[in-house]
Specification:
The complex is a heterodimer of chains A (about 325) and B (about 190).
Chain A (H helix, E strand, L loop, with lengths): L3 H16 L28 E3 L2 E3 L12 E3 L12 E3 H4 L38 E5 L5 E2 L3 E8 L4 E4 L3 E2 L1 E2 L4 E7 L3 E10 L5 E10 L6 E5 L5 E5 L5 E4 L3 E2 L4 E8 L5 E6 L4 E4 L5 E8 L8 E6 L5 E8 L4
Chain B lengths: L1 E2 L8 H12 L5 H20 L2 H17 L1 H4 L5 H30 L14 H11 L3 H12 L4 H8 L3 H19 L8
Helix pairs in contact in B: 2-3, 2-5, 2-7, 3-5, 5-8, 7-9, 8-9
Classes of the chains: A mainly beta (about 325), B mainly alpha (about 190).
Chain lengths: ~325, ~190
Amino acid sequence: MTTLDTLARSSAEAIHHSVAFVPVRPASVGTAAGVAALWKFGSYAVAGALAGVAVVGALIIAGPDEAEVSRDPVPSTTVAPTTIPIEEAVPPTTAPVPSAKTPAPVVPPSSAIAPTTTTVSDAEPPMLEILSPSDGERVKTKITTFVGRTEPDATVVASGKFEATVAADGSWSIDLVLAPGANGVVFVATDPAGNATSRRMTITLDVEEPKVTTTTTIKETTTTTIAAWEFVANQKYGSCVEPIAYDIFSGKATPGTTVSISSEYGSGTTTANGDGTWNLKVLFPSAPYNKVFLVTAKDHTGAKRTFEMVSLYQG
Amino acid sequence: MTVRPRSRGRSALQTTRLSSSVVRAREPFETFYEREFRLVVGLAYALSGSRSAAEDLAQEAFIAAHSNWDKIGSYDKPEAWVRRVVSNLSVSRFRRGLTEAKAMTRLGGFRAETAALPDLPAEAEEFWAHVRKLPKRQAQTLALHYLEDKPVAEIAVILECSASTVKVHLHKGRQRLASRLGVNLGEDR
């Protein structure tokens, strides 16, 4: 007799078979989105525009194992995709190409004083060292300074978005605010030729419990003073597909104090409970489709936490 | 310079995001797109029931991922994010379609769907139609479980809930589905 699981398996296979011939190279992206995109996978330079954002060039940031990309549009379940090295497919674009109207530069004779310059393609990834803190280290301060060394002209980016300050001698530093617990950080150094080196590390922020201090007055009455609690704010979703975008925020703050959430597209306030916890649902009725905006949570002392939010509802 | 990485607290996705940086650097978007696109279209097809809309829904999710690739690409499982978005969009699309169909019926009209994907066999069509009629979370859980053979822990990450919640959805969904289809549950899962 047919069971649910055998029926489910055959139904899943039917779906797989149905989508096996969906082209991965879209001619247009989403009629509903009304956004056209052109993907030029033939040359493996993604020369296209998605949602109004131009993307030029390959997005390789690290790893020789990522330097090969499948170019076969046929589903891998039926035909094994062939791979080609990305360097082979992407024509170098860093060297300027003189146009027909531009006169060729005058080359000085070999007897001239000025030395002849030769352009050598730089294929070597930049050096990247993290001098402090060390991998696996435990710290107690939320703001931690990471320092290291790289090549003088290279840029260093932490976790894909935070750019470090690189000095002329190649030393770099960046202050990162850590979340309680384990924090994974990836540093990527990229030289002007586009070569990249990445280093990853884990650093743990040890969190202390909120302190409660007790003082006794000379009138023999006991007063319990609760020190200002460390403000904790968490975001539940970060995106919303509902017609009216919303998100739920929660955390801890000094009991009885006001916590406010604000953004360009919606805001709200709440009061921390007796145990310091707070919870607030905030609507963003005017949030535009697919635009990331910032939401700030603030306690009574002015301590802030910032989150990103995006509405994915297209009316 | 002081910068503040987002502190998102307790969600399952955030947990993986923290560990993501430990595991790898960001993957190129086009590699991710090529690997995941068909699978996500399949998920959209199963949950929306619309052949013509499945590709659009998947594209919409990938456009959103691409627009925010700096952030999403650094997640441990960006594919989980895309699946969550597309499963929510697909269920919404299916329910909106039902409402539209009822309205069109009242108005005496009809809406012909432009086929973008091949038809499913009648048995499979019936199976997924019953899945779509389940409560939203149960439908999403069963689609991820049966279609992509995802383990409970991974479904929990995708749907941003606990593993035990997934187990409950899986249990109730399978019971209800078997009852509606008039079949036994089976022993292999």
